[in-house]
Structures are given as C-alpha cells and as structure tokens.
Design goal:
The chain is α/β, with parallel strands linked by helices and about 375 residues long. The protein has 14 helices and twelve strands.
Length: about 375
C-alpha cells in the first residue's frame, strides 16, 4: 500500500477506507464523510457562536438573570413611512435574537402621528405609555427640543426610560438631553456632507444643482449644514433653486417638476430624504430628461436607505442615496434597551451607527440586508 493510502485522519481512517471504491464503498465513504463533516460543522458553529455571543456558561448566566422577564416597549416615529418600517424590522430582528438566546420576552407597541407636525398626538401617546408603566419608549420626534426634554423627564420620574433614535443629536448640548441614549447618526457629517461631496466628485466640482427640502426643523437644518460644509470646498458648484417637498414623494415630484420646467439644464438634485429624491427622479423621467449614466445626465441623491430606493438605483433611475443605517438603528436600539434595563449598563449618550453612500456600484449588499430585515416578522 502506498504511503499516501496510509495517511490517517484524527478518526484513524485511511484515505482508501474513507474513499472506498464501488457503490457500497462510495455509500460507506459518503456516510463517514457526512458524519465527520457534520461533527466538524457543529464544532465550527459552536466556536462561531462563542465568538459572537460568548460561551454557554455566560449565556446561561444571562438567561438565569433575565428569568423570562417581559420588557414592554413603545415605538413612535414622527410619521409612518418605509424608512421607519425598516428601523422597526431591525428592532424585530434583535428582539428575536435576544429571545432565542436569553429567553427575554417583548411586548411591543407601535404608534405614530399622521403628520410630522402632529406633535401633540405623539406626546399624548408617550404619556399614555408612561401611565401604563411601559419599561421603555423609543422616540423619534419633530417636536421642539426643550419641550420634549420635559416629556422625557416626566417619563423618567414615573419609571419609564426614554431612548431616542434617528435624531440629529449633534445639534444640542449633550448634557441637556434627557433621553438615556440617542441611537442614530450625525446628520451633518454622515448625511448632508456625504451627499454634497458625492455630487461634487461626480461633477468634477462644477455645475448647477437643485434642492428639494423637507419641513423646517432639526433634520433639514442639520443636513443643510453638512451640505454647506461640502460645497464650501467647491465654489463652482452652485445651488440655483430650492423648493419644499415636505418629506413625501408626491410633493417632491411636483416641486422638482416646477424647478426643472423653469431650468432643465441642471446637473444634480439633492432630495433631503430619499422619498423626495425618488420624487425628483420621477420628475426627470416625466419630463423626458436624462438620468445620470455615470458620465452625463442629472444626478439624483437622497438619504435614508430604502428598499424602493435601492431598487430604483438598480434600475438606473435614482443615482444614489446615503444609507443612514435604518436596520442597524433598530437593532442597536434594542441592544441598548436590553442591557440598560436588565443589567443597568450605561450606554453612550450618543450612539452613531455607520452610514454609507450607495449607488449602482455597491447597492447589492445593503439591498440584501434590508430585504433580510423586512422578512423578520413582528415579535
């Protein structure tokens, strides 16, 4: 028998015995291979699980402390939208992971006002949750900063902890923010600045651009600040028109139509959020103008990271968007709530997730990630 036929693995089987010839030999060999592979695969999975979630002893310790506790959480954004749906599904994914791993249970309630301006409706919802002794409330609000801090302080005094998400925390003094933690991103430098720099780089620092902007408030202020920082580096890139789109697609479509009919020789349109960028993209098509093809046409860029936006990018309609980590905001929010409520761990006052400019060159991964999150059912 040749030397290479005598080589044995850790189970003492020779290669010839493991890879026996003939039908019977093949079947036996395949069965042995399958057993070895499954055992190795199980070990590899356990090792990977330990690296991600700690070892079995630690997981048991956490599970014993959790003791099947139910956490009651209210989730409220400024208005219903595809974007906030993605954040919520990110939260569902993390809740399910912690339920499976540690046995924690969740009582989840969603409520949002009809419009961004319906602040009283949102405040009434939060106060009702506090009255009903919710453990935590996740809030994204268009409300006045100081007024909302009073709402949060009252909630805290009553035993309900408030966590904010998707808020431009960079606009306010950190020590005045009464939320336990603010899970989001820096709207100025991780959104507005990135969009402006993308346009400038694609156009070589020269051209004419339009803005389709949202309601006056903290998001529009923060993103415009970032845009202005970017454009300060490119004096030959000029904003030649601006109109309100109020964060919705149909109003943005009308706004972009008005501006483009006045001057169709535009190089780029920045919709402050993705719904408005998608509306601007529809206006370009409706007027028979050319979308950006990599060298020519009108660039359209927004910010959110929507499934519909990614699909539009794939189809060569909207050019790009700044993904602001909707799914990760949801997941990180639940992670923060769990470790704070159960174990008293103190999170950072401001937790910024990663953001990313997405165009046709890199859309596949973020689209797959959002598709996965949206497939996770409610807890």
């Amino acid at each position: 028998m040749a030397d290479n036929d005598k080589t044995e693995g850790s189970n003492g089987l020779s290669r010839r015995r493991l890879l026996g010839t003939g039908v019977a030999g093949t079947a036996v060999g395949a069965t042995m291979l399958s057993g070895i592979f499954n055992a190795s695969h199980a070990l590899a999975q356990e090792a990977a699980t330990s690296l991600i979630w700690g070892d079995a002893a630690w997981r048991k310790t956490v599970t014993d402390i959790v003791a099947g506790r139910t956490l009651t959480v209210g989730f409220t954004g400024p208005a219903a939208s595809e974007f906030y749906d993605e954040i919520e599904h990110g939260a569902f994914a993390q809740m399910r992971a912690y339920s499976d791993m540690f046995g924690v249970k969740w009582n989840w309630t969603y409520a949002s006002p009809q419009e961004h301006q319906d602040i009283n409706d949102q405040v009434n919802t939060i106060e009702a949750w506090v009255t009903n002794r919710y453990d935590a409330v996740l809030v994204c609000t268009a409300g006045d900063f100081e007024s909302m801090q009073n709402v949060y302080a009252k909630a805290e005094a009553a035993g309900t902890r408030v966590f904010q998400f998707n808020m431009p925390a960079e606009l306010w003094p950190e020590d005045q923010n009464r939320a336990i933690s603010n899970i989001g991103y820096n709207n100025t430098m991780q959104a507005g600045y990135l969009a402006g720099r993308y346009i400038a780089e694609k156009l070589g620092g020269k051209g004419k651009m339009l803005l389709i902007w949202g309601l006056p408030g903290h998001w529009s202020t923060a993103r415009r600040k970032g845009l202005d920082i970017a454009l300060a580096e490119y004096p030959e890139l000029q904003i030649v028109g601006e109109q309100r789109g109020d964060y919705v697609r149909d109003k943005a479509l009308n706004a972009a139509m008005n501006l483009l009919q006045r001057d169709p020789n535009i190089n780029a349109i920045y919709g402050e959020n993705e719904e408005m960028a998608l509306g601007a993209s529809q206006a370009i098509q409706a007027l028979g103008l050319k979308p950006w093809d990599g060298t020519d046409g009108i660039i359209t860029i927004g910010a959110d990271g929507l499934k519909s936006g990614y699909e539009s990018i794939q189809q060569g309609q909207m050019t790009a968007t700044v993904s602001v980590g909707a799914v990760d905001q949801g997941r990180q929010s639940i992670d923060t709530i769990f470790w704070n409520l159960i174990f008293g761990q103190v999170p950072p006052k401001v937790f910024n997730v990663r953001t990313q400019v997405v165009d046709k060159s890199n859309v596949e991964e973020p689209l797959a990630y959002v598709n996965w999150a949206l497939s996770v059912p409610k807890v």
